[in-house]
Design goal:
Structural class: alpha+beta
Strand content: 5-15%
CATH topology: Alpha-Beta Plaits
Strand order of the largest sheet: 1-2
CATH architecture: 2-Layer Sandwich
Number of strands: 2
Number of helices: 2
Radius of gyration: 12 Å
CATH class: Alpha Beta
Oligomer: single chain
Number of domains: 1
Distance between the termini: 20 Å
């Protein structure tokens, strides 16, 4: 399951550089996560790094992009090729 950044985002800029897949970018008003690139850090880390550094806890799982751990690993392997 990909992650999503909610409206509680304060644009503090700490999540974007932490994403090993480059899935986080500045959106029109807040940061956004590209679900095609988000693996919840599977393949890189034990925990999603953006969630770890977010000071306002605004990065939950995206219910519109559910994926199993196996699917996340397959996505990681495609991305890192």
């Amino acid at each position: 399951m990909a992650l999503i950044i909610t409206d509680e985002c304060i644009n503090c800029d700490v999540c974007e550089p932490e994403c090993p897949n480059g899935a986080i970018s500045q959106g029109d008003e807040i940061y956004v996560i590209n679900p095609e690139l988000c693996t919840e850090c599977v393949g890189h880390y034990d925990e999603p790094q953006c969630v770890e550094v977010c000071p306002v806890d605004c990065i939950p799982k995206d219910p519109d992009h559910e994926e199993t751990p196996e699917e996340l690993m397959e996505k990681y392997e495609r991305i890192t090729g």
